[in-house]
Specification:
- With 1360 residues, the protein is α/β, with parallel strands linked by helices.
- Helices cover 50% and strands 11% of the residues.
- The strands form nine sheets. It has a six-stranded mixed sheet with strand order 7-8-9-4-10-11, sandwiched between helices. It has a six-stranded mixed sheet with strand order 23-24-25-21-26-27, sandwiched between helices. A four-stranded antiparallel sheet has the order 3-1-5-6, with helices on both faces.
- Helix 22 packs antiparallel against helix 23, helix 39 crosses helix 40 and helix 42 runs antiparallel to helix 47.
- The chain is elongated, with a radius of gyration of 36 Å.
């Protein structure tokens, strides 16, 4: 087309195409896309009941396993998906030739996205019919030419920390032929892409994401488009790719797409919402969908005529795309009386009319003619441009870029590694080198191994968060998913090597291990390999499970297995036979054996003073034995070999173990790589609507589309009647005079003046980057961090601290608790935000009004979900608006409420807002791509220039005459919004009109501006006379804090009940850990080793921290985002309520988990019953509460840092509790303060004391110390006096050989060695009281750090 030839990026696109093809753009492949009788079926029904926690638990016993086997069968091709199900698309026929662009039109929910995925040969739904590419069947084409098709989803998915340049250049390096892949060409193409998509100015800015600061939403969308452009596929499918773009930028994108299609002979299919006439005319064909049926497919020029001949009438001001989409909406379309159209009541009638048309007949003939030509001769295309090793190499380069972008997380890890290495290493500084310290020295190796492994847990946050990006880019054929998996493993190696070296240097010499190069590097090698095993193990789970909670469930349980069966807490010989095999697949076991034998074999351990049995005066060593493990009678020393062999460890296993550990690490990596290839979790369409319960306004099962159901309008008159009784007709006015906004050093807005009176419906428009959202945030004081100069008044006075709770702000992002129903979300907002003078009954009654106004009564009990859920984008936007309306705001601000909606849905949304304004509500809206009919619905317009100056403020009907008076005459039937943007130069090109800088000057010097200025004082005076019934209310919130806490706690509990992975993971982790511990230490006796096992049985509860606390961290982080971005700024509830509710909501779950853990662990372990059992339960429950209030949730800026701080705190508390390193062996500096500051000292001390005190020691044969008395003496005569003094047991006093001594009589003697005897810390109840105090102080710290970091925004550390 001639217009496309005028496109400024024409040469850049030609250059890109020439780079993509080794032979030049003229050699591009040409693929005809044909489909006949195409039907797509989803196996799930339209609606489902929510899967609550009990159902998830019951499904664990059979149904989940059967579903998994069924899924494996489908993957292997043994079984097929269910034949029955819901038809999403039915009987589609079409043809798109090379060089043609097909435009898909339809309301959200009509099946546009599903059709796009199907035509791109993507998705996992059942496809029937004939789909061919260049005459080749879709299945065969997918195998041989996968890279020739591409699908760009509506949602943007990028690694938020990377810059735009890094993102685009990565896509280029993965897509360009190797002969042209050099830095010069990549830079040249990057510049070309930046010019085409107008993102050159943000190339070095982070892409960002929903919660991560970066480029704007429109710029992020263009980055997604850039990835598709550079991928170079022949068949390209774009799903609403203009979402978030203004109309001028959207038109430029379509022009670029036209040029790309023409020059590259691409086959292009796209669905674009709110398309203007210029956009529509750039396409060749259009396909119109209605409820999954095809009601038209053919040339764009014939579409309008086809429907007009049937009797449909185009409403004045409608674009062609609006008219065609409007035909699918029975509530808004218009027909000629007596025409065929008037009798068409359903989408099936429209589909039948198309099937009977000459256009359809010609389409079938064209497809048949192509079929007669047979398959095109096509050389098989490589699935990926790069070889697999080269893909890994490029992914490695990106991992390095990501490492640099997220340096803070790694800095935190290294700093905590250094601190822990020095702190814990110095704790062992005074540990004796004789037999009294031998057992303790074993914990040196245990700590070194698990610390570095635990440090890998925070990486699960990124591994899971970036998985959708991996799936998206893999679908663009940039790389195999396993290439990223392998690259991450490889990139981890130097990072882990450095981390391990830092730790070993800090730790090794302080613990007084042999100062020898061989020992040092062997120690380092084992630490390094074990950490790699941990890292690969955790990443492996991240590829196989759908949620972060599941990642920590499996990862934490696997960590518990590794720690429990490593041979330190429980020697292999003491493990139960049926579970003993687990140590053979435990890499930590092999590393622990290596470190143990390497550092003990060759050493001579002197028997500690007083440790010789019997310790009688002038005894001959030949008649004594050391009480240490591995000791032999007649020797006062124990060799390291003997000590190691007592644990079942062999020196000869060292290098065998190294080989096994490397093999395990490789196996974990390979399993993870396979998982990355076969597992997909990104929704592929056909998602059902999830209902919490049946709705009282239930819908018919015959209608499979909730979007269509929600599109039905109640009587406008009845809704307005409801509103008249509830919405005040008068209220305060909002005015702003000479207002400027500065953010940092940049002046965003300059000298704006205007006003909003009750009933005003105002549109804010302007090019991307003009400052529309900034103005909205500044006026509403919502999430605004800049500085305002000038006068802003509400009700004739400067906005008070009450202003924020009287306004509503509809944000661009639809941020909701997805497990709440629509009604629950509205009621939550109404009860907490409506003015105090409304009663509870009035507030809830108003929710019904809002549900009716937004046509959501039939879906009131549906879970909100997200934009990938069955509700869809339009209904989700209605919910966002409804949450704000339910608060009865005086002024409603809406930031791009029509973004992502089709033209009909956009009109519906604006109709709802207009209906509100008619009843006296002040509504101010930013809008990007309004059609003429939509734009005309506003009363006033505020237009901004690209540099933030005011171009126009006044009535809608005067805007075109205003521009005409200044030399910009609008053509007839022009879209005013597009004309304004083109006139002020929004497209960045010379349009022959005045420059963007001239228009603000025209306004400032014109009579219109003076009229606005003169009106503001009188508006302020009139507004100040308005009676405000809540004027004397000085509270920041409309609901008391008790109500806030109650409602927020209830919402979080509903979330736990319906969002099953969270609570299910906690329950699963507790149950599995309890079973592992109890049946590994089954029916523990009371011998010396058994007493040690009792202590370790108690100790293993702390291993739950990785499964439980990390999930609590992530949950609190998400809940905190709700408060930070929406519910805090809107004054829904305060931060104290958030912290309190977060703790209270954990109590029921903690209680249930404690009960399950206690029952499955305590009784099988054979521990004391009665009061002791009750005490243990109480202490375990208190610990569960302690975990729920860990303050690092509030201390940390992100989850990665929080995870590292968690490891630091847990390791510190865990290693200074006197159980792993006995009190008298802790280095003096730490012993007298950190030991007492650790809550684990009292938690583990109290529980250990309870299960051991008063127990009569009964030694087994393995626990006895056996020696011979002097010749001629009995055992009693020789050692009887010593036995009495030592309170030991002599089992055979009359024997003259093989005297058998059990060194303890009661468990209290064992406790004395742990500093737990004689009622230490006030006994067990004193310990519990201290743990309660620590729990309370932990909660206080949670409140303090949340206030400091989230409310006051203090930077507590330099890197925060």
């Amino acid at each position: 087309m001639s217009e496309s030839q005028e496109f400024s990026g024409h040469d850049s696109i030609r250059k890109l195409l020439s780079f993509q093809s080794a032979g030049g753009a003229t050699d591009a492949k040409q693929i005809n896309l044909t489909f006949s009788a195409l039907t797509v079926t989803a196996t799930k029904s339209t609606q489902q009941s929510v899967k609550t926690l009990p159902k998830a638990i019951l499904n664990s016993f059979g149904p989940d396993q059967l579903n998994f086997l069924r899924w494996l069968g489908m993957k292997a091709g043994v079984t097929s998906p269910k034949a029955h199900g819901r038809k999403i698309l039915s009987d589609f026929t079409g043809l798109v030739r090379p060089g043609e662009m097909l435009f898909l039109l339809g309301q959200p929910g009509s099946g546009c996205s599903t059709l796009l995925r199907t035509l791109a040969n993507r998705g996992n739904l059942t496809v029937d019919g004939d789909l061919k590419f260049a005459g080749v069947d879709s299945a065969k084409f997918g195998r041989n030419h996968r890279r020739e098709t591409i699908y760009m989803p509506e949602e943007d998915g990028h690694i938020a920390a990377l810059s735009v340049r890094q993102t685009v250049q990565f896509a280029l390096r993965m897509s360009v032929p190797s002969s042209l892949r050099n830095s010069g060409n990549i830079d040249e193409m990057t510049k070309a892409i930046g010019d085409v998509l107008r993102i050159g100015h943000v190339m070095d800015t982070a892409v960002g994401g929903q919660y991560v600061q970066g480029v704007s939403g429109g710029e992020r969308k263009r980055v997604s488009i850039a990835e598709v452009f550079v991928a170079g596929a022949t068949v390209q499918c774009f799903d609403n790719s203009t979402r978030g773009l203004d109309s001028s930028t959207a038109l430029d994108f379509v022009k670029a797409l036209r040029v790309l299609t023409d020059l590259g002979k691409k086959t292009t299919v796209a669905t674009l919402y709110q398309a203007g006439e210029n956009i529509y005319n750039h396409f060749d064909k259009v396909c119109i969908l209605d409820s999954g049926l095809q009601i038209y497919f053919g040339p764009i020029a014939d579409a309008k005529t086809h429907f007009e001949e049937m009797g449909f009438i185009q409403i004045p001001g409608q674009t062609t795309a609006e008219f065609l989409t409007g035909i699918t909406d029975p509530t808004t379309r218009q027909t000629r009386p007596g025409s065929k159209a008037e009798a068409m009541a359903s989408s099936q009638d429209l589909a039948n009319a198309f099937k009977n048309s000459s256009i359809y007949s010609q389409l079938v003939k064209d497809i048949d003619a192509l079929s007669d030509l047979g398959q095109q001769a096509m050389i098989p295309t490589k699935s990926y441009q790069l070889s697999y090793p080269h893909q890994i190499y490029e992914c490695l380069k990106r991992e390095y870029e990501l490492f640099r972008a997220q340096m803070r997380v790694y800095q935190t890890k290294i700093v905590t590694t250094v601190i822990l290495g020095l702190a814990i290493g110095s704790e062992y500084f005074d540990v004796s080198t004789d037999t009294s310290g031998a057992q303790t020295r074993g914990s040196i190796f245990f700590f070194a191994l698990i610390l570095n492994g635990w440090f890998q847990f925070p990486e699960l946050f990124d591994a899971h968060t970036n998985r959708p990006v991996l799936e998206r880019q893999a679908s663009l054929n940039l790389y195999r998913p396993s290439a990223v998996a392998v690259a991450r493993v490889l990139f981890d190696l130097p990072l882990i090597a450095f981390q391990s070296m830092v730790f070993v240097i800090c730790y090794y010499f302080l613990v007084k291990l042999p100062v020898d190069g061989g020992h040092f590097f062997f120690f380092y090698l084992n630490i390094f390999i074990t950490t790699v095993c941990y890292s690969n193990l955790l990443r492996m789970f991240a590829y196989y499970v759908p949620s972060l909670d599941d990642c920590f469930r499996y990862g934490g349980t696997a960590s518990t297995v590794c720690n429990l069966f490593c041979g330190y807490l429980l020697p292999v010989r003491n493990m139960s036979g049926w579970i003993e095999w687990l140590h053979k697949i435990d890499p930590v076991y092999y590393a622990f054996e290596n470190l143990f034998v390497e550092n003990f074999v060759g050493q001579i351990l002197d028997c500690a003073p007083g440790a010789m049995i019997p310790d009688v005066p002038n005894a001959n060593v030949a008649n004594q034995i050391c009480e240490a493990k591995g000791a032999v009678a007649g020797s006062s020393v124990v060799t390291g070999s003997q000590f190691a062999q007592s644990f079942g460890f062999q020196f000869s296993h060292r290098w065998r173990n190294i080989g096994i550990m490397i093999s395990i690490a490789v196996i974990y990596a390979l399993i993870g790589a396979v998982g990355s290839e076969i597992m997909t979790f990104v929704p592929q369409g056909g998602s059902p609507v999830i209902f919490a319960k049946a709705s009282s306004h239930g819908r018919s099962d015959k209608d499979p589309d909730p979007e269509r159901e929600a599109a039905g309008h109640d009587s406008v008159d009845s809704q307005e009647k409801d509103l008249k009784s509830d919405v005040p007709m008068t209220g305060p006015s909002l005015t702003w005079r000479n207002m400027s906004v500065t953010i940092g050093e940049k002046n965003i807005l300059r000298g704006l003046s205007g006003y909003a009176r009750p009933g005003d419906f105002i549109a804010l428009c302007g090019p991307s980057g003009a400052g529309k959202t900034t103005l909205l945030r500044a006026l509403s004081n919502t999430n605004f961090s800049g500085k305002i100069s000038g006068d802003v008044k509400f009700g004739g006075a400067a906005p008070s601290h009450n202003f924020r709770k009287t306004t509503g702000f509809v944000q661009q992002m639809d941020l909701h608790d997805g497990t709440a129903t629509i009604r629950e979300a509205f009621e939550f907002s109404a009860l907490l935000r409506q003015p105090k003078h409304f009663s509870r009954r009035e507030r809830l009654a108003y929710v019904d009004v809002v549900l009716g106004l937004l046509d959501l009564r039939s879906l009131e009990n549906a879970l909100i979900g997200d934009e990938n859920s069955g509700l869809g984008v339009e209904i989700l936007k209605r919910v966002t608006i409804g949450v704000e309306l339910a608060a009865r705001p005086s002024v409603l601000f809406a930031d791009e409420p029509t973004s992502g909606l089709d033209s009909q849905a956009a009109i519906h949304i604006i109709d709802y807002l207009q209906r509100l304004s008619r009843q006296g509500q002040t509504v101010i809206v930013t809008i990007h791509q309004p059609s003429a009919s939509l734009f005309a619905k506003f009363d006033k317009v505020l237009a901004l220039s690209s540099n933030g100056g005011l171009i126009y403020f006044g009535p809608m009907h005067d805007i075109l005459p205003y521009f005409s008076r200044h030399g910009a005459v609008a053509p007839a039937d022009v879209n005013p919004a597009e004309f304004i943007l083109d006139t002020i130069g929004a497209s960045g090109k010379d349009n022959g009109q005045k420059s963007s800088a001239d228009w603000p000057a025209n306004w400032q010097n014109g009579p219109e501006a003076r009229e606005v200025e003169s009106s503001i004082p009188s508006i302020d005076r009139d507004s100040s006379d308005v009676i405000d019934v809540d004027a004397d209310d000085n509270s920041k919130f409309n609901a008391p804090i008790v109500t806030q806490i109650y409602l927020l706690t209830r919402r979080i509990l509903y979330n736990q009940w319906r969002n099953t992975p969270y609570m299910y993971s906690k329950i699963w982790a507790h149950c599995v850990s309890a079973i592992l511990v109890s049946f590994t230490l089954f029916q523990i006796g009371t011998g010396p080793q058994d007493l040690q096992n009792r202590a370790f049985s108690v100790y293993t509860i702390v291993f739950l921290v990785n499964s439980v606390v990390n999930t609590i961290l992530s949950r609190f982080y998400v809940v905190g985002l709700y408060w930070e971005f929406r519910e805090g700024p809107s004054r829904t509830y305060n931060w104290q309520a958030l912290c309190t509710a977060s703790i209270l909501a954990e109590l029921p779950g903690s209680f249930v988990c404690t009960v399950l853990y206690f029952v499955l662990w305590y009784f099988p372990s054979g521990l004391p019953l009665g009061g002791t059992a009750a005490y243990i339960f109480l202490m375990a429950f208190t610990y569960g509460i302690f975990q729920a209030s860990l303050f690092m949730m509030a201390l940390s800026p992100d989850l990665g840092v929080a995870g590292n701080i968690l490891v630091f705190i847990i390791c510190t508390l865990n290693w200074y509790n006197g159980l792993i390193v006995p009190y008298n062996q802790i280095q003096v500096f730490w012993r007298y303060w950190l030991y007492y500051l650790s809550p684990f000292t009292y938690f583990l001390g109290g529980m250990t004391t309870a299960v051991i005190r008063g127990q009569q020691v009964v030694c087994s044969a393995m626990d006895l110390s056996i020696f011979d008395p002097p010749s001629g003496q009995t055992c009693g005569a020789y050692a009887g006096e010593w036995v009495t003094q030592a309170n030991a047991q002599l089992l055979n006093p009359s024997a003259t050989a093989n005297c058998s001594v059990c060194k303890w009589t009661t468990g209290d003697q064992f406790l004395e060695g742990l500093n737990l005897g004689d009622g230490q810390f006030g006994g067990i109840w004193g310990c519990w009281g201290i743990v309660v105090l620590f729990t309370l102080s932990n909660a206080v710290l949670l409140y303090f750090f949340f206030w400091a970091t989230k409310v006051k925004r203090w930077k507590l550390f330099y890197f925060f």
